[in-house]
Design a protein that fits this description.
- The protein has a single domain, classed as Porin (Beta Barrel).
- The chain is 8% helix and 60% strand.
- The chain has 1 helix and 11 strands, in the order αβββββββββββ.
- It has an 8-stranded antiparallel barrel.
- β9 (163-175) and β10 form a beta hairpin.
- The longest helix is centred in the N-terminal third of the chain and has 17 residues, at 2-18.
- The model has no long low-confidence stretch (mean pLDDT 89).
């Protein structure tokens, strides 16, 4: 049901723009570097991946609007231990999200074969689903507050849809009207832990999340 809502909203918005602009559709692949600023535990940045679809609506040679639907698979590194007296180990968890960014690009340089522009917008990110490749590490204690790994799974186990809104800033490089390179920065406006149950220790903490994205889009 979650995924149906996601794609229906995108389809309706795209249909509304089709009649007003020239448009192209593309496939996007990219990398992410996720940052979680919180006192609940310590994390280190790691490289994740992003895959998705892109709809580019061109109003004129300077002005473009892009709507995307992407699946993000962030890699986040933690420090943890199986018991209180055990030495710390490196733990790598996966954070999965569906992302719906809407961005406006103003092209400072616009020629037949190359465009360079400034990129800004906002994104609705649905779900906040953590998971570990090794399920046996669900009871590991995260440094420094000994929060269990499985307590990060509050959105994965919930029937409610997690939501965060991100502000986006970045650049756009488009080559031959077919290939677009987009480095971006995403800044989260909401605290994901607000949706943790009251008996989950994460409900007592706040976090500000952000991430860098470098994407390559090929327009069909």
């Amino acid at each position: 049901m979650r995924y149906k809502i996601f794609f229906v909203l995108i389809s309706l918005f795209s249909l509304g723009l089709n009649a007003q602009t020239t448009h192209k559709f593309g496939i996007t692949i990219g990398g992410t570097s996720f940052i979680s600023d919180t006192e609940a535990f310590t994390t280190e940045q790691s490289i994740g991946i992003a895959l998705g679809l892109s709809a580019n609506f061109v109003f004129n040679r300077r002005s473009e609007l892009t709507l995307e639907a992407k699946y993000n698979r962030h890699q986040v590194n933690f420090k943890g231990r199986p018991t209180l007296n055990a030495p710390l180990e490196d733990l790598q968890l996966v954070l999965k999200q569906l992302e719906i960014p809407l961005t406006y690009t103003y092209n400072i340089v616009s020629t037949d074969n190359f465009k360079f522009g400034l990129n800004a917008g906002a994104s609705a990110n649905i779900f906040y689903e953590y998971g570990a490749d090794d399920e046996a590490k669900g009871d590991y204690l995260l440094d420094p507050n000994n929060i269990r790994v499985k307590q990060l799974y509050f959105d994965t186990d919930s029937e409610n849809i997690g939501l965060n809104v991100f502000l986006i800033s970045g650049l756009s490089f488009k080559f031959w009207k077919k290939v677009q390179l987009t480095p971006r920065y995403y800044y989260g406006l909401m605290n994901p832990y607000r949706q943790a149950p009251n008996d989950n220790p994460l409900s007592n903490y706040e976090t500000q999340v952000s991430y860098y994205f470098l994407g390559l889009t090929y327009y069909l």
